[in-house]
């Protein structure tokens, strides 16, 4: 019979040994986290992590990167991410982030607030040429952090066949909320679902902008969610839903507005220019036109979605990375991307070329003038997810209750 | 003198051989202990440290300058009136109703299947055993995707219900709780206008009405999936235990004149008790940790009714960059599982004195 105490002691000793060995490995962690790292000269091997929309985008970025690499004498490895947010999170925690990566505007504040991003925005030549709303989306405390790679806006998409079936003409395309309601009533009378709109703040938020409201103040410091303007907007959308003039995609057995629209289940939808690719791939026979969103009580409004080329504060090849981004965001390069995978250039100087080549997309690109960017504040992801859960039940919840909850959660998140 | 020397020598030889055995033993298990320590114990301790800090995911959590916040992340889950507590409590509520349904259902189903395929009279036993076990060996992600199709609005289940004239719910977008619907159907409460008695008060930021929602319609699909996929594994455990019961025991009880039901209740089931304990414990642990089905099928929606602590922990850490709070959630979940397993062990402890009385008494003819 052996002594039980000896077991425990030996086990503890071995465990402690294991701990010590691994703690020794642990000292390899970079202790200079948060601080920026020194620049290394000479040719660099850039690592670029992109959240690609598909093979077309990956191929286009690879080809552009190849051209830059050949001209500058560096190399650039493009890796399309499976789950960009998670992969970046792990890379930052491991102190070994890629040099250049996509940063979605809705996540920008999360990264910028913890010092993960290099604020290089104004070192790009012609940085004033980017649309002001996109510069705002990637600025924090007045510093322009990263160059927007492209952008999208929401517009009203109209199904030509269903439009005719409801006895409507091109002149009937609604330009105001009142006309949207009256046109929707006519379409409903013809037995067609008038409008399908996504049940998230990324679609319904456009109505809030048209009413003059938004979730956070322009500097992203204060919560302004429970304003009278927002109540007006949600009451209007709620009215559409209650009268059967608008439906959420799920109610039409679709994953998103574009799917319901493409299947001919609704005459109108509110979506961005990405709908072009989806329609071409899945519903090539549906004829449709793009129009500006109807104006609300405070005029025209839409939402913009954008991504920037983030450069890691910890990158050791910042100069080369900036030169890479410079090449990627030149107007002619952005036009090449636009042709390859249907995005809109983020530079105002490219607008004329773009509208000449893609005249049907003019309403999308015009939206840049009155578009509102995503919520630019950190720690808002779960707050907005909670708001979306509320919006799903908009038909049965009082908008004031919903906005009061959003206001409280936003204040908690912002420390307002 | 010489005798003593020999005796001590022998004793010390015995001692050295024993300690040598000891050293050899430790050498043999050293690789496993090292691997477990390095990849299991150490990460757990590291996560414990992270749960005590306000680490934002930049660089190592072990450098100086990472703010230490003590138990703040833990108290935040229970005390502070904000969104993170609300989410955590909702996830506990959801998972509780999930566990309460899944664990008994999968145990009973597994036992039933095992008894069915154990019968010697059943033809094609091998086929049925394989068929019932099949869902368990298939990847849970693949099955989740399959269920997405089956329960979609134009899927098999909805179509099947339509044949019987029932208009099925929109499974994945229906956030109404089953208990709410039941109360509604009985006329005790109205889903759209809940009684103020229940909405007025509450605990941990949720009203009593919210606590009492039961699993949502969307959660039911995950419940069905879990029961279906896990019952095969547990059936196998029950089957192994059934085959271990000596035939003589069964024959003896037959000779004693016990009916089939009595044999099941007084002979088979008591013999299965250790396996039953195993199945319930494994079921309890696995169900509280449900993650992959939620990640694939619903991401916590609709209206957070499929949010579970494991998924919430992941989301809090990797989407909100609140690693401390995310780690704290997983440790609370760990404690909860340990407590429940201990409680279950206590409930199922051996009570032989009671068992004696319930043993069937042979009738004398």
Main sheet of chain B: which strands, in order across?
A: 1-2
Q: In terms of per-residue confidence, which ranges of chain B show pLDDT below 50 for 5 or more consecutive residues? A: 1-5, 353-358
Please estimate the helix content of chain B.
over 70%
Element-level helix/strand string of chain A: HEHEHEHHEEEHHEHHEHEHEEHHHHEHH
CATH architecture heading of the largest domain in chain B: Orthogonal Bundle
The oligomeric status of these chains comes to heterodimer
**Alpha-beta classification of chain B:** mainly alpha
Largest interface: A-B, 44 and 47 residues
Family (chain B): Belongs to the binding-protein-dependent transport system permease family.
Subcellular location (chain B): Cell membrane
InterPro entries (chain B): ABC_transporter_permease, MetI-like, MetI-like_sf
Keywords (chain B): Cell membrane, Membrane, Transmembrane, Transmembrane helix, Transport
Question: Could you characterize the architecture of this molecule?
Answer:
- The complex is a heterodimer of chains A (416) and B (365).
- Chain A is of the alpha/beta class and 416 residues long.
- In chain A, helix 2 (55-72) packs antiparallel against helix 13, helix 8 (201-210) packs across helix 9 (228-242) and helix 16 (381-392) packs antiparallel against helix 17 (399-414).
- In chain A, strands 1, 2, 3, 6, 7, 8, 9, 10, 11 and 12 form a ten-stranded mixed beta sheet that branches.
- Chain A is built from 17 helices and twelve strands.
- Chain B has two domains: 2-51; 74-177 and 214-358, MetI-like (MetI-like fold, Orthogonal Bundle).
- Chain B has 16 helices and two strands.
- Chain B has a two-stranded antiparallel sheet with strand order 1-2.
- Chains A and B meet through helix 1, helix 3, helix 16 and helix 17 of A and helix 1, helix 3 and helix 14 of B.
- Chain B: The chain crosses the membrane at residues 23-50, 96-118, 130-151, 216-242, 263-288, 323-343.
- Chain B: One of its GO terms (cellular component) is plasma membrane.
């Amino acid at each position: 019979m052996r002594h039980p105490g000896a077991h425990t002691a030996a086990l503890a000793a071995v465990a402690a040994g294991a701990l010590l060995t691994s703690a020794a490995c642990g000292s390899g962690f970079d202790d200079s986290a948060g601080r920026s790292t020194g620049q290394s000269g000479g040719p660099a091997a850039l690592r670029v992590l992109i959240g690609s929309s598909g093979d077309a985008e990956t191929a286009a970025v690879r080809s552009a990167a190849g051209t830059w690499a050949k001209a500058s004498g560096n190399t650039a490895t493009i890796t399309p991410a499976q789950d960009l947010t998670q992969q970046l999170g792990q890379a930052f925690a491991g102190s070994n982030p890629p040099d250049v990566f996509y940063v979605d505007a809705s996540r920008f504040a999360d990264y910028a607030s913890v010092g993960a991003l290099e604020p290089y925005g104004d070192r790009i030549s012609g940085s004033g040429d980017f649309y002001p709303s996109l510069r705002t989306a990637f600025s924090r405390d007045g510093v322009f952090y990263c160059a927007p790679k492209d952008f999208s806006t929401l517009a009203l998409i109209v199904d030509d066949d269903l439009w005719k079936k409801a006895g409507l003409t091109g002149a009937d395309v609604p330009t105001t909320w009142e006309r949207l309601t009256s046109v929707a009533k006519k379409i409903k009378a013809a037995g067609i679902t008038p409008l399908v709109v996504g049940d998230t703040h990324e679609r319904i938020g456009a109505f809030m902008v048209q009413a003059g409201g938004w979730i956070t103040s322009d500097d992203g410091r204060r919560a302004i969610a429970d304003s009278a303007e927002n109540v007006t907007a949600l009451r209007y959308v709620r009215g559409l839903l209650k009268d059967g003039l608008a439906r959420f995609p799920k109610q039409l057995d679709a994953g998103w507005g574009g799917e319901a629209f493409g299947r001919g289940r609704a005459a109108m939808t509110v979506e961005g220019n990405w709908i072009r690719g989806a329609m071409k791939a899945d519903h090539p026979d549906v004829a449709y036109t793009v129009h500006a969103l109807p104006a609300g009580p405070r005029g025209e409004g839409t939402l913009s979605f954008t991504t920037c080329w983030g450069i890691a504060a910890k990158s050791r090849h910042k100069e080369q990375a900036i030169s890479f981004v410079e090449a990627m965001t030149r107007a002619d390069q952005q036009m090449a991307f636009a042709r390859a995978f249907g995005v809109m250039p983020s530079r105002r100087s490219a607008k004329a070329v773009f509208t000449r080549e893609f005249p049907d997309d003019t309403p999308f690109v015009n939206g840049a003038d009155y578009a509102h960017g995503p919520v630019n504040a950190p720690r808002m992801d779960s707050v907005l997810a909670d708001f979306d859960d509320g919006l799903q039940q908009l038909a049965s919840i009082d908008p004031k209750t919903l906005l009061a909850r959003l206001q409280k959660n936003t204040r908690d998140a912002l420390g307002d | 003198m010489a005798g003593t020397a020999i005796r001590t020598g022998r004793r010390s030889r015995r001692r050295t051989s024993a300690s040598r055995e000891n050293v050899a033993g430790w050498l043999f298990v050293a690789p496993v202990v090292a691997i477990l320590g390095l990849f299991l114990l150490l990460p757990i301790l590291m996560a414990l440290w992270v749960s005590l800090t306000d680490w934002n995911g930049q660089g190592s959590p072990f450098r100086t300058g990472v703010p230490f916040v003590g138990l703040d992340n833990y108290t935040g889950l229970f005390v502070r009136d904000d969104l993170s507590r609300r989410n955590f409590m909702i996830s506990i509520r959801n998972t509780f109703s999930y566990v309460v349904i899944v664990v008994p259902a999968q145990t009973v189903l597994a036992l039933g299947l095992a008894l069915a395929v154990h019968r010697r009279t059943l033809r094609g036993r091998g086929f049925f055993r394989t068929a019932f076990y099949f869902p368990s060996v298939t990847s849970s992600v693949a099955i989740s995707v399959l269920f997405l199709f089956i329960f979609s609005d134009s899927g098999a289940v909805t179509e099947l219900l339509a044949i019987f004239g029932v208009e099925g719910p929109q499974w994945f977008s229906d956030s109404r709780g089953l208990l709410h619907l039941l109360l509604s159907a009985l006329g005790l409460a109205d889903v759209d206008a809940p009684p103020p008695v229940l909405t007025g008060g509450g605990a941990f930021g949720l009203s009593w009405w919210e606590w009492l929602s039961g699993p949502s319609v969307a959660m039911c699909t995950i419940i069905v999936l879990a029961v279906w996929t896990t019952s095969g594994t547990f059936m196998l455990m029950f089957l192994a235990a059934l085959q271990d019961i000596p035939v003589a025991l069964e024959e003896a009880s037959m000779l004693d004149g016990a009916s089939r039901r009595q044999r099941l209740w007084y002979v088979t089931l008591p013999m299965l008790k250790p396996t039953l304990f195993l199945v319930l414990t494994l079921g309890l642990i696995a169900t509280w940790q449900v993650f992959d089905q939620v990640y694939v099928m619903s991401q916590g929606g609709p209206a957070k009714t499929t949010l579970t602590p494991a998924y919430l922990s992941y989301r809090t850490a990797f989407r909100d960059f609140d690693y401390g709070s995310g780690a704290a959630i997983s440790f609370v979940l760990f404690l909860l599982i340990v407590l429940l397993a201990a409680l279950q062990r206590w409930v199922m402890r051996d009570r032989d004195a009671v068992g004696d009385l319930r043993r069937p008494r042979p009738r004398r003819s």
